[in-house]
Amino acid sequence: MIFRFDFGNPFCTEAVTKEIPAKTGLEAEKEFSVYGELSLNTGFSFKMSLQKNSVIYGFGQSMGGINKKGRKYISYCTDDPVHTEGKDSLYGAHNFFIIHNPGEKHTDLGFFFDYPGRITFDIAFTETDRIIISAEEKDISCYVIKPEGKNPLEDITRQFREIIGRSYIPPRWALGYMQSRWGYRTKEDIESVYENYTKAGIPLDSICMDIDYMVEFKDFTIDGEKFPSFPDFVSKLKKDGVRLVPIIDAGVKIEPGYDVYEEGVKNNYFCKKADGKDYVAGVWPGRTHFPDFLNPEARRWFGLKYKVLTDTGVEGFWNDMNEPAMFYSDEGLSEAVEALKNTDLSKLDINGFFAFKDKVTGIANNENDYKRFYHRCIQNGKEVTVNHHKIHNLFGYNMTRAAAEGLNEINPSKRFLLFSRASYIGMHRYGGIWTGDNSSWWSHIKLELSMMPGLNMCGILYTGADIGGFGYNASRELLMRWIEFGLFTPLMRNHAALGTRDQECYRFENPEDFARLIRFRYRLIPYIYTEYMKSALKNTMYFRPLSFVYPEDMDCLEIEDQLMVGESLMVAPVLEPNSTGRNIYLPEDMIEVRLTNTEEIIQTEIPKGRHYIKFPLDELVFYIRKGHALPLAKPAMRTDLIDFENLSYIGDKEVIQKAGKEGIPPYKVYIDDGFTTEYKEI
Ligand code: MIG
Q1: Which atom of ligand 1 lies closest to the CA of 318?
Q2: CA 69, 74, 80, 82: dihedral to nearest 10 degrees?
Q3: Model pTM?
Q4: Where is the Glycosyl hydrolase family 31 C-terminal domain (predicted)?
Q5: How many whole angstroms from 246 Cα to the centroid of ligand 1?
Q6: What's the pLDDT tens digit per position in 365-394?
Q7: CA 100, 101, 106, 107 torsion-angle sign
Q8: CB 494 within 8 A of CB 520
């Protein structure tokens, strides 16, 4: 059951697609106060008590563990490429969580705070037994979800997913291995990635093109010198089942004569300052304007621009810099210069020095800049002008919505690959996300694992981190371990930053070790695809914390380094360097599957409980639930070549034998064409 309470005058974010009647005014205040202390005096403040053993799940893309207790989360989409433990904000704003009271099922509650501006969730941090939520304005739609079924965690999640609409479904090839790097500059660079993967026998489905393919970082341009006869290049690779996935940035270069700029200016499609002039932000192309993605006409205009690339045969995109990231603004620059000029160095004390320094380091992604521009939005059928800061978290969401709607108009029956950096709840209907600029750090494998279930709770199913890490240098061991987890994530992309060590699998010793792992990913795609489609079509989760599946087992509440993948599988990745084994917890008897370094599959029954298990670097180990069987396809180099009809099965022998006798498959594989929107029943 879902209850909605509206306070003030909430901005309609279109996160929720289902009509839910709202309580308003004093009635809302009174009824919502049943859940905690509400104050609307200065902005929005809400305090809820927790039990000692309460566990909190949710918050999508965020720092912290699977249990979100003990820290603050600030929803304010942020381009911060250093994801260290103390960071409160990342690129997404996912204000949904569940308070789980173990053993007392029916007191669990789900909360969604539909608020597009900055909002802070203090989850048992300032006070160990309280949640404190605060926002600058009181204009919020609050949704409370009470569980109905036997399993409150799964039930609340399903109810929430039902009201926010069906998750994005990528083309099947998007489940293949994707290679990326910021620094592929030319056709030859990309060709060499393709050739080296082919030579190493490592499956590959797509190669991302980072900003260097454009002319001076101008959206919807292709540098013809670096990429001569681009459409031929696209089709040549596609003939061998490999797709190119170009990046699109949020800012449009200011350059007279550049069509996107000219059209945007002429039609007032760019965000404006208070004085009515187009707002200027410095990003990769230099001075740019931001398209007003909140404005339906501007959105349609920008979305249809993707046709420039789809006309060349491109079928997938990634949208970047859409928090929006801003290196500088004109105002910010001149204020800093002014302040520096006015500094009297002879009187500079130490505080003065730090203030002086902050003037410069604070120029990028500065909140003051977000307050300097406006959007034209339609609210209740009327056009209104809204300050960006107030709806900051909707920008990336609506950029990706623009792309999805445009692509849909360009080819309504086709599935395009689309993923974004910034997001808000609701964006899951239009595309996936990658988790942004992580680092080649061991802790970031764990961070990815922790984020996955929370993202799925918010409907974001097509997701994954930059495998091997974006910033800093990856070791061979780190990349291998990361792939051993990443081969279970729907978005499986190896990506690295400019200037870091080369990170393509073939750059390391014995690429065959990588080939074996990625080959196995391809063998698992019938399972991964089926489980993905189940999650999307039935509003369930692809990655679940163990406690969602074994709600009676209190030990599961503290398992922070294992996940259920789909209905049948459990992973327990190695998260430490120089280790050949780890402790695991089995909530029931399970079948251990071990892919050896000679590509044999060894299956062993392991009883419920705690075990120390050997995980040599060159083996892949995971678990299958009792009573479950998993399909395996024959190895293939491309998803297009995977044979969904001739499968073998691993897992529970009895299930497999019984099905064999009955002449039915022990696992029901979902099959469709994989690239049109003609989904089948599941
Ligand atoms: O300011 O396009 O997160 O994946 O490689 C950096 C260059 C801009 C940030 C993205 C990253 C991408 C990079 N971009």
Answers
A1: 4
A2: -20
A3: 0.98
A4: 541-629
A5: 12
A6: 999 999 999 999 999 999 999 999 999 999
A7: negative
A8: no
